[in-house]
């Protein structure tokens, strides 16, 4: 079992800003079992009005690849991951959506693909593939990075298909006892954001965050 409580200077999602103005508070809890099953919840609050912005729940199963037939020669750091994820928005439940995930885990990095049949509650499905990596620089400092590709399915005849895009994030983290501090730069590296997003949400942004583990 693990739990964290933290704050971020700005809320970002897959390369773009959200409607949440100002810093946000995050709380999460995760539990797993020896056979590989796991589940968790995460909550996000806006600091400007203390209201719940979103809630996430995930259940899944992961395991080591060397436990599978014919793959016993692989290093124990390699694994697989599969899960179901649900996002609920506190004041806009029409945007709620679910995703299925499949992933490949390796020492220092993870590759995952998420499929949402009704992305943000709309009529279009979406596929999001992401690569996340982290490297320890010493006992306290680490560098981390992320690259993601968002691909939309066909749109209904009355609606334009949203453009595909690539988002990236790079940052550095510092761990002091149970505390974790992060500074990262996030933004769209290829393609474009949806036309209905305002200029502030389309721009790249710095993210300063801190969290404590329990």
Tell me what the structure shows:
By secondary structure, the protein is mostly beta strands. Helices cover 2% and strands 60% of the residues. The chain has 1 helix and 14 strands; from the N terminus they run E-E-E-E-E-E-E-E-E-E-E-E-E-H-E. It has one helix at residues 199-202; strands at 2-8, 12-13, 16-17, 24-32, 37-46, 52-64, 79-89, 97-106, 109-116, 126-136, 141-152, 165-176, 179-191, 205-213. It has a 12-stranded antiparallel barrel with strand order 1-4-5-6-7-8-9-10-11-12-13-14. Strands 2-3 form a two-stranded antiparallel sheet. The chain is globular, with a radius of gyration of 18 Å. The model has no long low-confidence stretch (mean pLDDT 94).
Break the fold down into its secondary structure elements and pairings.
Layout: E1 2-8, E2 12-13, E3 16-17, E4 24-32, E5 37-46, E6 52-64, E7 79-89, E8 97-106, E9 109-116, E10 126-136, E11 141-152, E12 165-176, E13 179-191, H1 199-202, E14 205-213
Antiparallel strand pairs: 1-4, 1-14, 2-3, 4-5, 5-6, 6-7, 7-8, 8-9, 9-10, 10-11, 11-12, 12-13, 13-14
Summarize the structure.
With 214 residues, this protein is mainly β. The chain has one helix spanning 199-202; strands at 2-8, 12-13, 16-17, 24-32, 37-46, 52-64, 79-89, 97-106, 109-116, 126-136, 141-152, 165-176, 179-191, 205-213. It has one helix and 14 strands; from the N terminus they run βββββββββββββαβ.
The residue ranges in which pLDDT falls below 50 over 5 or more consecutive positions are none
The portion of residues forming beta strands comes to over 45%
Number of helices: 1
Strand order of the largest sheet: 1-4-5-6-7-8-9-10-11-12-13-14
Q: What does the overall shape look like? A: globular
What value does the average pLDDT take?
Answer: 94
The termini sit apart by: 9 Å
Rounded to an integer in angstroms, the radius of gyration calculated over CA atoms is 18 Å
| Strand segment tally | 14
By secondary-structure content and strand pairing, the structural class works out as mainly beta
- Helix content bin: under 10%
SSE topology string: EEEEEEEEEEEEEHE
The biggest beta sheet reads:
12 strands, antiparallel, barrel
């Amino acid at each position: 079992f693990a739990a964290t409580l933290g704050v971020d200077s700005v809320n970002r999602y897959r390369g773009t800003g959200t409607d949440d103005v100002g810093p946000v508070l995050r709380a999460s809890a995760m539990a797993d079992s020896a056979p590989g099953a796991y589940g968790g919840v995460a909550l996000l609050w806006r600091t400007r009005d203390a209201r719940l912005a979103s809630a996430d729940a995930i259940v899944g199963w992961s395991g080591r690849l060397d436990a599978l037939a014919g793959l016993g020669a692989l290093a124990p750091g390699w694994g697989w991951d599969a899960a179901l994820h649900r996002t609920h928005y506190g004041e806009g439940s029409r945007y709620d959506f679910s995703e299925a995930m499949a992933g490949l885990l390796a020492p220092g990095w993870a590759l995952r693909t998420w499929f949402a049949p009704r992305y943000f509650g709309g009529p279009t499905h979406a596929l999001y593939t992401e690569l996340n990596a982290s490297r320890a620089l010493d006992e306290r400092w680490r560098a981390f990075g992320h690259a993601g590709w968002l691909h939309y399915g066909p749109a209904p005849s009355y609606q334009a298909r949203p453009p595909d895009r690539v988002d990236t994030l790079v940052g550095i983290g510092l761990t002091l006892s149970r505390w974790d501090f992060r500074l990262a730069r996030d933004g769209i590296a290829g393609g474009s954001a949806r036309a209905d997003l305002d200029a502030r949400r389309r721009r790249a942004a710095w993210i300063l965050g801190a969290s404590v583990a329990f």
